[in-house]
Design a protein that fits this description.
The protein is built from seven helices and 40 strands. By secondary structure, it is mainly beta. Among the domains are: 92 residues; 56 residues, no CATH class. Helix 4 packs across helix 5.
Length: 595
C-alpha cells in the first residue's frame, strides 16, 4: 500500500488474508486512533476485538522511571602510544571487580582527552561500570578501531554483555486461557495464578505454529536463485553440511544436516540447481523458529487474571497456539552499564595527512575493518549510550540487542562499506523495550532499523537521517511493536511484506506505527491479524498534516509518569522544536560530513 499524498481525512484500509483481517490505519489531519481528551491525557479507540495502539512508554533505561545517572569517576587513563586494547580492558575488568565488592556503587573509567588505538575488542562484561570520555568532538576522546585489509579486523569495537538466554522455570509455566488477547492489552487470564505474585518477572510466550505461519503466507515464499562459488560438501565432523559463498560476497554461508537426517535425505533437501551453480536462498518460515518471548513484570493479580507492566504487542489466539507465562532467571546478565562522551572511528584504508583513517573515496568498497562500534548484547538490561559520535564502521554505530537500553544524542557521520545487504545500519534494534532518541545518521542504508524476530515494543523518536541510501523501518522477519516518532529520512519508510527478499524475509514487521514522521513515501502493510499505523506522517512539503500531541511517545510518558519523567528525557526546548531538528543542526555545526 502506497500512501497518497492527497489524503486529508482519516482512512482505514482493510484487507482479508484467509479469514483474518489485516489493517493499515492512515490518519493525517485528525486521529480517531488516539486523541488528547478533556483530562489532557490520550484516549484510545479499540476495534471490535479490543485491539488498540499500544502504550510505548515503557521503553528505555528503567522504563523512563529513573534518570540516567552521572556516575563518579573511579579510574582514569591517559593516552599513550601503541595498542591500548589490553590497557583499557584491564582497567574495565578491575573496575568491575571493585564494583562487585561494593554493590550498588557504580563506577566510571574516564579516558582523558586524546587518541586511543584499539587493535582488538573491548568487552564490558561486568555490571555497574561506565566507559566515559571527555567529549565526542574532534578534540575529545577518540578511540580508533585500528587495522584493515584482513578479516580478523572485522569485529565489534565495544561489546557489552553476552548473548546468553533466559532460563525458564518449567514448574511455573501456566497457559493463557483467553480465546483472544488483543494488541495493546495489559491483562489476560491464566489457568492458575496461584504461584505468582505482584512483582514477579515473567516471560509471556507466544508460539509460532504451522497454522499461523501459513495464515500470513510465510510458508509459501517464492524461490530466489543466486549464483554461488567455492562449494563444499562436508560429510564428517561437528558440523556436516553444505558450504558455499554467494557471488559478490566475501562471507561463507552454510546449510547444515539435521540431527537424525541421513546424508542422502540432506542432499535432496539442499536447494541446488541441476548444474550446481545456483542456490535457492529462500528459507520458508518454520514452526518454532518464530516463537516470541516477551519479558514483563507482574503489576497486579486478581484471581487468575494477571496484569503486566508493558503491553502485549501481538495478539495471542488459541487457534494459533495461544500463549503461556513462566518465571525465569538471567544468569550472567549485565546491567547498569553506560558508554558516553566518546568519538569512535574505524580505520579502513591507508592513512594520509589529510585522511588519517583512509581516503573517503575508497570507503564505498572497504569491507575488512571494524564492523560495529558498540553492541549491547542480548543478555543486557538497563544500559545506555549517550553523546557518542562514530564514523567509518561497516555496519552499525549502536546495535541494541538487549532490554531497556537508552541510546541518545548520538551521531553516525558515515560508513566504510559497500552499499548492499548486511551493511550500513547505523542505529539498529533487535532487542525489546529499547529507546533511541535524538540520533543522526549519514549515508545509512537502513539508518533506523529493526532486525528479525524483534519482540518489542521499541521506539525511535526525534531522529534524522541525511543522504539516506534505503528505507527506514522494520527490515525483515517480523519485528513486533515498533514506534517511529518524529523520524525524518531522505528515503521511504516501510513496514511491509518482503517475500523472498534476502533469504526469505517474509513480513518485515507488524504493529508498526509511524507518528509525525517525514519521508518521500510510506510503504506500510500489516499481515493477517495485524495492524499498522501511519499517523500524521507524509512528505516534507506536505503542509498541515502533523497530529496533536506533537510526540506520541513523550505524551505517553507524561500520561504514565508525569512531567518530571518527561523532562528527564527531553528538555522543554527540545520538545517545542519537534519536527524542526534544531538540536541536530546545532550538534553538527563543528562536524564535517564524510561518506
Amino acid at each position: 500500500m502506497k500512501i497518497s499524498t492527497h489524503l486529508t481525512i482519516c482512512i482505514t484500509l482493510v484487507a482479508f488474508q484467509g479469514n483474518l483481517k489485516a489493517e493499515t490505519i492512515v490518519e493525517k489531519t485528525a486521529s480517531k486512533t488516539c486523541r488528547v481528551d478533556e483530562t489532557g491525557k490520550l484516549a484510545y479507540t479499540k476495534d471490535a476485538k479490543g485491539n488498540r495502539l499500544p502504550d510505548f512508554s515503557h521503553v528505555g533505561y528503567h522504563s523512563g522511571e529513573k534518570v540516567i545517572p552521572d556516575v563518579p569517576v573511579r579510574m582514569t587513563l591517559e593516552p599513550t602510544e601503541g595498542d591500548d586494547t589490553k590497557r583499557i580492558q584491564a582497567a574495565l575488568d578491575k573496575l568491575g571487580i571493585l564494583r562487585r565488592r561494593h554493590p550498588g556503587k557504580l563506577g566510571a573509567l574516564l579516558l582523558k582527552r586524546g587518541v586511543y588505538r584499539v587493535e582488538g575488542s573491548i568487552k564490558m562484561s561486568h555490571s555497574g561500570i561506565i566507559l566515559r570520555g571527555e567529549g565526542d568532538g574532534p578534540d575529545g576522546t577518540i578511540v580508533i578501531a585500528t587495522g584493515y585489509g584482513d578479516y580478523k579486523y572485522k569485529r565489534t569495537l565495544i561489546s557489552v554483555g553476552d548473548e546468553g538466554k533466559v532460563q525458564e522455570d518449567e514448574s511455573s509455566k501456566q497457559a493463557i486461557v483467553d480465546d483472544y488477547v488483543p494488541i495493546g492489552a495489559h491483562t489476560f487470564t491464566v489457568k492458575s495464578a496461584a504461584k505468582y505474585r505482584r512483582g514477579d518477572r515473567i516471560v509471556v510466550f507466544r508460539p509460532s505454529t504451522a497454522e499461523w505461519i501459513s495464515s500470513i503466507g510465510c510458508d509459501k515464499l517464492g524461490a530466489r536463485w543466486e549464483g554461488i562459488r567455492d562449494v563444499r560438501w562436508v560429510k564428517d565432523g561437528k558440523a556436516p553440511g553444505f558450504y558455499y559463498q554467494r557471488l559478490g560476497y566475501d562471507s561463507q554461508y552454510k546449510m547444515l544436516q539435521k540431527t537424525g537426517e541421513s546424508w542422502e535425505e540432506f542432499k535432496k533437501r539442499v536447494p541446488l540447481s541441476k548444474d550446481g551453480k545456483k542456490f535457492d536462498l529462500t528459507r520458508q518460515w518454520q514452526p518454532g523458529h518464530y516463537d516470541f518471548y516477551f519479558e514483563r513484570l507482574i503489576t497486579g493479580i486478581s484471581g487468575n487474571k494477571v496484569t503486566i507492566d508493558a503491553p502485549i504487542v501481538h495478539a495471542l489466539e488459541q487457534k494459533f497456539g495461544g500463549g503461556a507465562i513462566y518465571k525465569y532467571t538471567t544468569p550472567g546478565r549485565v546491567t547498569e552499564v553506560g558508554i558516553e562522551n566518546l568519538r569512535l572511528v574505524s580505520e579502513f584504508a591507508a592513512a594520509s595527512p589529510e585522511h588519517p583513517y583512509g581516503d573517503p573515496k575508497h570507503a564505498g568498497g572497504a569491507e575488512r575493518h571494524a564492523w560495529n562500534a558498540i553492541k549491547l548484547n542480548r543478555n543486557t538490561e538497563n544500559t545506555w549510550v549517550r553523546n557518542v559520535t562514530g564514523n567509518y564502521f561497516g555496519w552499525s554505530l549502536v546495535s541494541a540487542s538487549g532490554k531497556r537500553a537508552t541510546v541518545q544524542d548520538c551521531v553516525n557521520l558515515g560508513h566504510a562499506s559497500k552499499i548492499t545487504g548486511g551493511r550500513r545500519y547505523p542505529f539498529m534494534i533487535d532487542g525489546q523495550l529499547n529507546l533511541m532518541q535524538r540520533c543522526v545518521a549519514f549515508a545509512g542504508r537502513h539508518e533506523f532499523v529493526n532486525q528479525g524476530k524483534t519482540a518489542g515494543p521499541n521506539v525511535f523518536v526525534d531522529c534524522i537521517g541525511f543522504n539516506s541510501k534505503n528505507s527506514a523501518g522494520p527490515h525483515h522477519r517480523y519485528a513486533i511493536g515498533n514506534l517511529y516518532d518524529n523520524v525524518k529520512s531522505e528515503r521511504s519508510m516501510e513496514s511491509q511484506f518482503r517475500g523472498s527478499m534476502g533469504t526469505g524475509h517474509g513480513w518485515a514487521g507488524t504493529q508498526t506505527c509511524f507518528y509525525n514522521c517525514v519521508a518521500p513515501g510510506f510503504s506500510v502493510r500489516a499481515p493477517a491479524g495485524g495492524i499498522s499505523w501511519v499517523l500524521g506522517s507524509g512528505k516534507s512539503d506536505e503542509k498541515g498534516i502533523r497530529l496533536t500531541p506533537p510526540s506520541l511517545y513523550y505524551q505517553q510518558v507524561q500520561d504514565r509518569l508525569g512531567k518530571a519523567a518527561l523532562d528527564r528525557l527531553a528538555t522543554e526546548e527540545q520538545r517545542k522544536s519537534l519536527g524542526t531538528y534544531q538540536w541536530a543542526k546545532e550538534r553538527l555545526e563543528n562536524e564535517k560530513q564524510s561518506e
